[in-house]
Structure formats: C-alpha cells, structure tokens
Design goal:
The protein is mainly α. Helices cover about 60% and strands about 10% of the residues. The chain is built from 8 helices and 4 strands, in the order αβαααβαβααβα. The strands form 2 sheets. A two-stranded parallel sheet has the order 1-2.
C-alpha cells in the first residue's frame, strides 16, 4: 500500500514501450465500485476471489507491465502464476507509508490503529512478496523515476 506501484508501473511501461495494467483497476471497472466498498458490502473473502480471477486473467492476457494489489500474493495459485516472471517487490517502511498515503480510511484493512495494522500486514506479507519477487527495490526517499530505473536495472530490462 502506497509503495508507488501504479506510478512506477506506468513509468516502467513507458520506458519499455509496452502497456500498463493494474488488477485493482480491473476489479473496480468490472464491479462498478471502489475496493473499499466491496470490502464493506461483501467482505474480504469475496474481494480476494475477485482479485484471484483478475490476476489470472491479466497474467494470461497481458504482455506489458502489470501491477497487483498488495494482498494478491496471499493466494497460493496467484503465487504459482507469478513463478518465473520478472516480479519486483517495491518495499518501504511504515513512516514512508504514512507520508505517502496517511494510512487513512480508504484502506479498509487499516481502519483501526493503522500503523500497527500496517506493520502486522507487512510482517505477514513480506515473506510472500519476497517469495515471488525476482528483485526487491526499496522506495523510501526515492522519486518514482528513481524507483522505476532501479527496477529496470535490477531486472536487467532495457529502456525502449
């Protein structure tokens, strides 16, 4: 959350001369409502199923840069789909997250005591992120342009 995956993903896609796609945006478009509303109305398990389907469809049908929601790696099948792909994990610490997004109400998993919940989420997810990632790129105190270039360099991908 707030790592800059959308901004950085778009920059990488531009630099590689390919298209960009975000599975969270796919879900919002298909459902006609925000992710926070899906969580409130239907619950997290329902959202995770939508997310699983969106990621599978995107991995199968998209050849450019793909950004996944932060919880996508919770699913075993999704992690299997990502095996062998050039996946980058954009990491940051909680202070950076607070600066970037404020950990506010639009984040349904952070509704109460956001700093503690962010740390707990990251403690649970970090091993899964590193499991699927070919590279880990720290985003703290870096511009999106610097992060995008660091990802390209780490994955040894050439600008278009």
């Amino acid at each position: 959350m707030g790592s800059g995956k959308s901004t950085v993903g778009e920059l990488i896609a531009q630099r590689l001369g390919v298209s960009y796609r975000d599975t969270d945006a796919d879900i919002v478009a298909a459902q006609g409502r925000e992710i926070s509303d899906i969580f409130v109305d239907e619950g997290e398990p329902y959202f995770r199923e939508l997310e699983r389907e969106a990621v599978a469809a995107a991995v199968a049908g998209h050849e450019g840069v793909l950004a996944l929601g932060g919880g996508a790696v919770l699913d075993d099948k999704t992690r299997e789909l990502l095996t062998g792909l050039p996946v980058a994990y954009l990491s940051m610490d909680v202070e950076e997250a607070v600066k970037r997004v404020g950990l506010g109400a639009a984040r349904p998993l952070l509704a109460v005591n956001p700093r503690r919940q962010w740390r707990e989420l990251m403690d649970a997810r970090r091993p899964l992120y590193t499991e699927v990632a070919r590279v880990v790129v720290a985003t703290d105190a870096r511009t999106p342009e610097e992060v995008a270039q660091a990802v390209l360099d780490a994955l040894e991908l050439k600008n278009a």
